[in-house]
Structure formats: C-alpha cells, structure tokens
Amino acid sequence: MAVRGCSSSLTRGFHRNMLMAKVVPYLSAGHSKARLYSIYTTTTFDPNEEKFDKILIANRGEIACRVMKTCREMGIKSVAIYSEADAQSLHVEMADEAVCVGPPPTGESYNKMENVMKAIKQTGAQAVHPGYGFLSENKDFAKMLEQEGVAFIGPDTLALQAMGDKIESKQLANNAKVNTIPGYDGVLKDEEEAVKMANQIGYPVMLKASAGGGGKGMRIAWNDAETREGFRLSTDEAASSFGDSRLLIEKFIDNPRHIEIQVLCDRHGNSLYLNERECSIQRRNQKVIEEAPSTFIDPDTRSAMGEQAVALANAVDYVSAGTVEFLVDSQRNFYFLEMNTRLQVEHPITECITGVDIVQEMIRIAKGHPLKLKQSDIPINGWSVECRVYAENPYKNFGLPSVGRLYRYQEPSYLPNVRVDSGIREGSEISIYYDSMISKLITYGKDRPEALQKMSRALDEYVIKGVKHNISLLQDVLGHEKFISGDISTNFLPEHYPDGFKGYQLQKDEKSNLLAVACCVHLKQEQKSRAFLNQTSLMPSVPRLSQASFVIISDGVHHKATINETAFGYEIHVGDSNIMVDKNWSLSQNNPSLLGLNHTPQVMQEDVSHILISLVDPIALISVDGTEYSMKVITAEASRLQSLMPEKVAADLSGEVHAPMPGKLHALQVQVGQQVGEGQEVCVVEAMKMLNSLHAGKSGKVKKIFFKVGDNVSEEEVILEID
Fold first, then answer.
1. What is the pTM of this model?
2. Which top-rank group of organisms is this from (predicted)?
3. Helix (H) or strand (E) holding 719
4. 338 is catalytic
C-alpha cells in the first residue's frame, strides 16, 4: 500500500518557511468505494449546480475523511493538512493533495493559522471546511479567510463571535425568548469572584469556558474549594484548547438529559431544524453514546425546542449547519446550554433518520445556494444510534486515554445498516497530542430495539489490539435495563456504576463456560505442539490427551477441571457444570461450539454476543462483550506447588503519585521537602487537551520529584514520592 506522507525527496522535518505538499490518488489499495460512500443519506447532488473546485479540510482523523467522502461525491477535489505525527494517516492518503503544517503539537500545526493559510494559498483551495475542534469556531480564522477571498464552510464571523462566546450567546438567547439556565452573565475575574457568584447562585454550579466546547474547560463544583480548583483548571484548559481563558458560571441542573437540535440555515432566509439527538450518556462532560430521535421527547416538545433553536439562529443571521444544545429536566422543561457553530461529532445519526447529507448542505450553502428542503420535508425515519469507540481504559474514571500503535485493527464495516466513520487503520498511532477517538460506529434500524441490536452485534465485530478501548463499557451500557427502557440522564454512568466500571459481570454458568473454553484452548494448543514432528518443545503437561485434569486460575481463584475426549467432542467438568465443546473446533475459530450433554447447541450469550480468544501461552485471553478475562491453565501438581509458595505482601504505594495516563506534566503544586495533606492537589497532567488534577494519597513530606513541568510522562510512571 502506498504510504502518504512527506515525499522522500523532501526532508521529513518541518521547515519554518516552507510547507510540503504532495499530490496522490484519492483511492488506494484496500480502500474500496463501498467504504468511502457508506454515508446512509438520500440527498442527491445536482451536477449542473455551480460548485467549488477544491476544498481544504482544516482538520484530521475521521472528520477529515468524512468531509472528503462528500467532496468526492460532489466532484470536488480535497486538500488535507497534517502534522508530522500524522504523515501516514488515512486522511492524508484519501485526499487529492496533502500539506504538512508543522510538528505534532496542535499549537504548532492544526491550530497555527498562518501555517494553514500558507497551505490554502499553496494549493489554491477556494474554500475551507474546518470540521470540529481546532479552528472550527475561531472567528479570527474565519476573518482571515474572508480577507483572502476564501469561503469558510460555516457561519459568518459575527455569528461565530456571538454564538462562540457563551456569555454573549446566553444574552442573545434571553433576547430571543429562548429558555436559559439561571447564572451570572459576566466574565469571572478570579477565584474569589467565582466563589462569590457560586454562593449567590447556589450550589451546585457549573464553571465553563466562554469559548469552545467538547467538554473542555468545564467543571462542576459543589462547594467553595471545588469552585477554586475548578476555576484554575478550567481557565488553563480553556486557554490551552481555545486560546481564550474566560469563564462563566451558572446553576448546574442535576440529573438532566442532554438533548440537542440540529439546524440548517442558508443566505436566502431559509431556516429549518432536523429534529433532535439524545446525548445524555457522557463521561467528563463528553458524549459517549448518542441516538436520534430521543425516547423522551414528544411531538409538542420537539416543535417547541426546534422553534426556539431556529429563533436563536435567526437572531444572529446564522448560515450553515449548527447545533443548539439544551438541558431537559424530568418535566420536559428545557434550557439553552450553548450553540455549536460547526459540524457535530454525532451528525451521522441525524443523517440516518432524515436522509440529509449535512456536509453536502454546508458546502452548498457556503457556495450561496438555497436549501432545497422545507421544514415539512424533514422526516423521522427509523432510529439511529452512535457509539464513540475511544482508545482509553474504561476501568479508570470511565475512560482515561490510552496511547500506542494499532497492530491489529478490524472494523465491522460491511454489516447491513452499519456505518463506521474513522480516520485510522491497522498500524495507525494513537498519540498523546490528539483526541483519543478510534472511530464512530453508527447503526440504523426501523426502530430503537433493532438499532440497538445491530449496534451490539457491530461492537462485537471490532478487533482492536495495541491500545485499550472502551467497547466493554459501551456494550454494558447498551445492555443495561435502564438504558434499554430509555430511563437515562447525564448522570447515568456515576449513578449506575458508583464504584466505577468493572467490566461485564459473568453469571455462574457463563463463568463455567469460559473456564471450559480456556481448558479446551490449552488442550488444543498441546495437541498442536505434539503433532509438530511428533513431539513438544515444552515439558509435557498432559500425559494422556484423551483424559486429563487441569487447574484454571481466574481472578486469583483456582478452579479444578477434568477433560474427557468422546466421539462427540470434549466433555469438560468444571465445578458442578458439564460442558461439551465441539471436537471439530480449531484454534483459528473465535467461537467454539459449546454443546449440552444431550449434544444440543449451548451458546455463551443470546443472539449477538460472541467471544474472542487470543493466546499468550499458558494464558488464554477470552473476551466477552468487550471485557477481557485472563485464564491461566496449569496442571494439578503445579497448582499444589503454587499453594506452598509464600504469599506476596503488596507494597504500600499510597505515597507515590502515578500518572493515570500518558501525557505531559502541566503543573507542579509542591516542591521537595514540602508538607502535604491527604487529598491535597500536588500536580496536574495534561493529556489529549484535558487537564487532570492529581492528589496526595496520604499526608507527609514530599521526598522526591522525578519530573519537571513540560516533561512527558507514561501511564503509571511515578511523578513524585511522599514520605
């Protein structure tokens, strides 16, 4: 496969005064048209309609690839920009042209406006689609484009200013008779003013960045101490992510739903809303699972929310696609949260139920064309669900980032009514510099149960090796009775997983089945070894393969098991269970056929769940619904000897402060020799544009600090020690 990146005839480093470009074919080996055009919209493009010749996508990853797909359908050439870290990325390969805009840090590449402007001039792009994040809501960037005569595929600078500033947008919303959340309309000057306003409003309160979105620069505070810490962290995070440190404060509505309305507006006075999206399943104020429509919104509420969203858009003469976000309480009272003046991550689910290609409409509007649709033309056909598949550890705070190379990656791309929006492939690197999203998985069904069933099946089809991922959490939420019934809120994860997510909890019979599978895997591996030159490279662990005893260690517990080979298969006795495994099953198959003692099929889970098996001899790693279980198979004698070994006493690590994820040390609040109290903040780690405050696990004196501010830290590395 051809590798996209800086040409070998050019230096791979970034030159301050030169941007590097390379022209390559759009399609490459291994990327079929089926994958490129699986957008699930019914929008058709009029080839006789005037269009742009070339569009630069000022973004990376899945959203850059998504925009390029529509550009391709419209016959428009696409230009990618990329950092040195992204030289071999999929979005670079998909584009007709690609330009390197700097080193990996976003402030030196994707967010560096002068470099992006040079790329635009160099390639002759007539328009820029900003995607989401980066420069997508930056009024200064839009102004630069306007001055250069380049179209910005998004709203005008005045609307960007008004709606991008949460303080100004709230004032405009009030004037437009849009329901708003009680709070302080000014900019917070310092921690003390934040505390003062919080007490006037009444706890809990939400501190959030005036600019930007995506959950960054936001903190919930329940007391004065949390307000002070939240002010400081949110200020730094907002400045780092958006170049704007201003914060506002408002009442935090506990346990609401997060429901948003998609709007489309052109330059000819036409405005319409594309119904709602339910985005309540969140962690750290970032969405994880979205669906359209919402189970909670009735037609009257939908109309009222849609009309208020359009009224707000019209108040600033908004053009292009935008999203008005609301918080909705249990009585269906809704309150304006913010307006995102860009394409949303979750836009595909709206495309699925309406048939509207939102990206195509954005491009048409930017070219000056009117909307072809009227409000009465916008349907709700079926149901669509989106899961965000992240490279992160779901067992740590519902998902702390994981970095590494995807040495094995397979998407469920070819299942019916399943859409995968991604910007990575096997071999791609998930780095500390960018968002940890691997892909967006979207399913469509005639109703919600069908869409959810397809989602669970599709999640099962993923193969992701090289980084941790959140599929186990997604599967568990999808199967939760409260989620299935539609009884959800933004507090869903902490409410239903108060001790954090622990993975799929096996029932007794399921555990027995897994133990049997692990036993069979070990036996098959032993047979394979003995078949090779009629010997084994390992010490024989099974004297007779037709009948054997094992001990399987899972979660520190030793389980005795016996195997008897019969004419039908392998009869395995574990505890009080007897399980039969099909004799014809081989290690190359992920799904062993489990038979009952009457030789009828006995499956691990009903319907869509299946297991994935990998071997790290003598350990079988068995994955069920995305949760991986480690099962070590040993002989009975080895188990007996293990029981005689002295038990290891776990070391006291409470004095060590570890990095919870790979990232950069953003701040140190202590120095060597300083006395600290238990729970006191000692440092801040920045990872993927989010700031994470770390606290002392015990009281004591700081003994040693191993890093300085600005240093990169790996996951679980010790940052400092407390004596």
1. 0.80
2. Eukaryota
3. strand 718-722
4. yes
Q: How many residues does the chain have?
A: 723
Within 13 Å, how many C-alpha atoms sit on residue 366's CB side? 28
Q: Do residues 87 and 12 lie in contact, with contact meaning Cβ atoms separated by under 8 Å? A: yes
Task: Identify the domain containing residue 664 by its residue range.
Answer: 656-722
Pairing of strands 127-129, 54-57: parallel
304: burial class by Cβ within 10 Å (0-12, 13-18, 19+)?
Answer: middle
Write the DSSP string, 466-488. Answer: SS--SHHHHHHHHT-HHHHHT--
pLDDT in tens, 653-662: 778 999 988 8
Note whether 128 and 154 are within 8 A (CB).
Answer: no
Q: Quick one: which H or E segment has residue 264?
A: strand 257-265
Q: Token digits for 557?
A: 């517990």
Nearest one of 379, 389, 458 to 417, comparing CA atoms: 458
- The alpha carbon of 409 is separated from its chain's Cα centroid by a whole number of angstroms, namely 16
Give the CATH number, domain containing residue 201. Answer: 3.30.1490.20
Q: What is the pLDDT of residues 21-68, one digit of tens each?
A: 333 323 333 333 333 344 467 888 888 999 999 999 999 999 999 999
pLDDT value at residue 682: 94
Number of domains in the chain: 6
**188 and 73 co-located in one domain:** no
Residue 354 to residues 41, 44, 286, 418, 588, Cα–Cα distance (Å):
8, 13, 25, 16, 42
Among the listed residues 278, 338, 346, 656, the single catalytic one is 338
Distance CA 317, CA 700 (A): 59
- The Cα 298–Cα 328 span in angstroms is 12
Structure tokens at 321: 């696609």
